[in-house]
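Question thread 4412

I'm putting together a teaching handout and wanted feedback from people who do this every day. The idea is simple: show students a protein as raw sequence, then show them the C-alpha cells that encode its fold, then repeat with a second protein so they can compare. Below is the first pair exactly as I plan to print it.
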Amino acid sequence: RYMILAVATVWSRTKKEVGLKHLDVGLGWITRMDLDTIAYLFDSNDKHIETVYFGIKESKNKSVRLSGDDLVGGGAGDNEVIYIDLDKLDSRVQKIALYANIFKFF
C-alpha cells in the first residue's frame, strides 16, 4: 500500500538556470519505514516519458539515477538520493517531478 508524502517539480527546461549542470535530491528519515523516492520525466505536453524508482534505478541514458532502495531508514544523512545530470537528459524531457511514498511501516 502506498501513501504519497510529497510531490515536487524540481526542474523544468523553461527555467533558465545559469551554470546548473547537476541536481542531487536526497531523502533522509529516522523512523522505521520503507520510503521510496521516485522521479517522473515528462515532455513539454506533460506526457510521461520515463520513471526512475526502486525497480528501475536509472533512466535509459543514465542521466537520472537512484542511489538505491533503503528499506528501513535511520542513520545519518540521506537514505536515498536521486542524481540528475541535466546535460545528459533526453532532449524530450522538459520537466522532472519527484515523489516520496511511504511503502511500509514497521
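The second pair follows. I'd like the answer to focus on this one:
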Amino acid sequence: AYDATVMLALAMTKVQGTDGTQVAAAIPQVASSSGGETITNYRDGLAAIKAGKKTRYEGAAGPYDYNDQHNVFGAFDAVQANATTGKLETIMTLSAEELKAATVTP
C-alpha cells in the first residue's frame, strides 16, 4: 500500500490534479521512465518532478516497470502446505523475466 500511495501522489503531482484518466496515464511515467532518476520516496520524487526530470520509482517491493497494459511483474512463488507440519513450502519460483515472457500481449 505504501508504494501505491507514493506512486499515486507522484502521478497527481505530475499532472497537477486528480483527473483519473490523466493520473492513470502518469503512474507509469513516474514509476518506470527509462533512464529516469531512481527515487525511493515521495520527497525525492517531488523534487525530481519539479526539476523536470524523468523518474523511476523503486519502492519497498522493488522496481515498478509497467508494461503497456499497466502490469508490473515481480518474482512469484508457488507454495504448498506440508502435510505433516502445515507450514508453507516454496515449490517453485518464477522470475519477473519468466512471467513477462509468459504474458500474452493483445
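Top answer:
Good format. For the second protein you could add a caption like this: Residues 2-15 form the longest helix (14 residues). Residues 79 and 89 are 5 Å apart (CA to CA).
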